[in-house]
Amino acid sequence: MNTQRAPWAKVFLLAGLCVGLAIVAVGCRPSAPSAAQALSERDLISGPSVTAVAPDGADIHWIAPAGMRGSCRLLEDAAGVVVTVSTSAITGREDVRYTATLSGLSPGRRYWYEVVSGRERAEGTFRTPPAAERGVNP
Amino acid sequence: MSDLRHDHDASWRAELDRAAEAAGLSRREMLRLGLFGAAAVLGQHWSVRALAAATAGGAEAFHFVVTGDTQSHPLRIRAIAEAIARDVPAFVVHTGDLCNNSNHPDLLEEQFFGPWRDLLRKTAVWPARGNHEYGIQPFADLFRLSPQRLWYSFDYANLHVVILDQWSVKGSDTMEPERMAAMAEWLDGDLAAVQGKADWIIVAGHQPMFNVAGHGSTWGHERILPLLYKHGVDLVLAGHSHLYERFVPIGPRGAKPIHFIVAGGGGGTNYASVPSPILLRSHAAAHYSLYRIEGDRLDLTVKGSGGTIIDTMTLTKTGGALAPAVLAAAIEPEDAMRLLKPYKGLAVNVTERPVAGRTMTCTLSPRRFPPGSRVTFSTDPSSSWSVEETTFEAPPQEPLDAAAVSAASPPEDDAPAPWLLRVTPPDGVLLAGHGFSPDLSASIRLDYRGRTWFCPSVPVGLHELSVRRLAPQPTVVDVPAASEALVAQLAGLSRGGDQAVNIRLDAWEGVPFLHLPSTGAASRTMKLAWARDALYGIVAVEQGAIHVDDELPWNADSLEINLEPDAERRTRLLSRGPTVKLFLWPQPGGDGGPASFKRSTGRLAGGSVKAHWRKTPGGYVMEFRISARALTVADDGAGTPETGARPDAQPLAAGRTLGLDLVLRHDGETVEQFADPRGLRSTWGSPIYWGQIRLSSQ
């Protein structure tokens, strides 16, 4: 009996594995808010987004209803990194901006982070610039 | 570096290990990539190759994206954002106009945070403020920028990026002089501090410093541009005009020339491109700019959302100096301004209707060409018109801005004698809104200061005065006053609600069908009547199934309404001008209710237009009301009703004449049209042949 698998079987298995991974990944991700869901009903309204990336720090922003419990953490390589979450008003809006200020990052590295806002959770990634004499210059 | 999509001999795990090694990532990180979207492994969304390229380069090579004007069209914005994400840029510079109005949370979500949701989670963003941010707040709040100074800079490896602000504190007006001075002082110091430390310097903002099409912006020439030359800036990147434009390098003699690029293709409505002698490339479609820097080499690749390569450019430096070929191609800023827009809005005057095969003489103002330049017109090989080759010499005066030689300028205002251009129309030629159909275009060779600039195809339009002169006077059709019974019935439409949906055809029985100049007979479907408060109308359509298109109603079943309050027979319709152009159509599903509505032009406040529809056994009936306020012309003393000011409402009165065109469509085909388009081509946004109605006392 020929026990060798046909070449297409390997491809099929690989595709099946990938689809399985995709299902798991989609299942693990927080459900995207539906278009019909009003902004005010969401725990995480917009974001997160990353700005002010310097070799040793970055800001992660998201918008959420005022009073929502919000947190941010690095998923790995977090040694020596300090994360401070603060909130501030957005002119003309009732919801507020949350900012996670990250310091102690290493230059030229990719970081993965997780933001939790109420019942919603989001993951993201960014890369710090290589070491430079100057960073962000306001 | 490996590509999982093409290596079927190796296991996916070994491939991941190899890719991880190449990318400098742990297997866990690579696995996270897979989990982030398993399509990574399938090679559909995340490209491992791109990620590895983005990560492996370290300080020596990196790439980033510049885009802007993410407005109006969420699907287009999302398509561009997804394409950017696939390139895994180190960061994205957004050149402003996050959405149509950043003070509206819903619009911000619909046009920026929503479509960019995944992209924002994969890279960092550096934003500039556009005019659609409408003031410093809440833009500064959103990105935690100082509300006093929205200009800043940052470094990435050997690149220095400056983000400029260009607008007033409270709105989208010109920046206050004192703030401009403060920004210039900061910029001078910022750029001085990076001399010898950055190999590449890029300045980004919303408004371009050189721009032909769209807004045609030339921002910052007095206060900012000299500083950029002083400190050896390499590129100036902007948006604002929703297209791509890359110019020849521009710089004063002895200074390093700058590459100016307009890249407002983040998803907003496309602006048509306009040829210019000094444009190396222009493209009118959604796009983004991918820059890759590796030491002294900079590569630009401009891409469409489908991955189409729109433009490429490579710059290299030796000892900090650009290649001799780049320096040789450069022109001075003063010449660049003279050569920027000679072809924008290029229009001729004619005194006779075009006839196929009969050569006619057009007149053309020479005041848009550089002084002393020689301009040769000839036939554009891609055009069906023929143009007699003729060379003219431009007068010694400085050229007027394209806007000053506008289509509305009377030809007799031209100080120098107009140029006479002889052209021969092709078969089937029609007079159209801004010119002819088929379009007249010419090849133009421009010789100026020892260099020759050739544009093979330059569109040539027609002055508005010529259009009006040649378009026949419309037939005036009387519209009756509404009876008391009809006014009572229409009061329901005015108030809205269920009563209005109960459209009573018998209330319209005393109103005759509208006479149509297009056929010389009465309409089969349309009736109009007026009262002091509004113009009313009804269409009763027998057509069978209803087909609608909410995005492009003119391609389905709809009623197009064009109303000109003062019957000026305009050929240019402005978004906030007095001319009302709108579409009404039945909502999909159901048996009736409020009609769908899309405004193209006109100062229409909320409630200015009301319309309802009801399904009938053979089609549908739709009733509408356009308020007297929407049909009131501003009288601001300047005689310009297109200033955007909202005048006090004036009641409609007997004897008043209004410009009108109605087009009833089924599946995009015209069923009936009010105005007579024969011999003319009424193009989108410019119905050159206005019909007219007179409000009758009967």
Q: Can you tell me about this structure?
A:
The complex is a heterodimer of chains A (138) and B (698). Chain A is an alpha+beta fold and 138 residues long. The model of chain A is unreliable at 1-5 and 23-36 (pLDDT under 50). The longest helix of chain A has 22 residues, at 7-28. Chain A has one helix at 7-28, and strands at 46-54, 57-64, 70-74, 82-89, 96-103, 110-117, 120-127, 136-137. Chain A has a domain at 39-127: Immunoglobulin-like (Sandwich), CATH 2.60.40. Chain A starts with 6 loop residues before the first helix and ends with a strand. The relative contact order of chain A is 0.20. Helices cover 16% and strands 41% of the residues of chain A. The longest helix of chain B is centred in the N-terminal third of the chain and has 17 residues, at 177-193. Chain B is α+β, with helices and mostly antiparallel strands and 698 residues long. In chain B, helix 1 (12-23) packs across helix 2 (27-36) and helix 1 (12-23) runs parallel beside helix 4 (48-56). In chain B, the strands form 8 sheets. In chain B, strands 3-2-1-11-12-13-14 form a 7-stranded mixed sheet. Chain B is 18% helix and 30% strand. Chain B has 4 domains: 10-56; 59-340, Metallo-dependent phosphatases (Purple Acid Phosphatase, chain A, domain 2, 4-Layer Sandwich); 347-470, Immunoglobulin-like (Sandwich), CATH 2.60.40; 476-695, Sandwich (Immunoglobulin-like). Chain B contains 15 helices and 39 strands. Classes of the chains: A alpha+beta (138), B alpha+beta (698). Chains A and B meet through helix 1, strand 1, strand 2, strand 7 and strand 8 of A and helix 2, helix 3, helix 6, strand 3 and helix 8 of B. Strand 8 of chain A pairs antiparallel with strand 4 (152-156) of chain B.
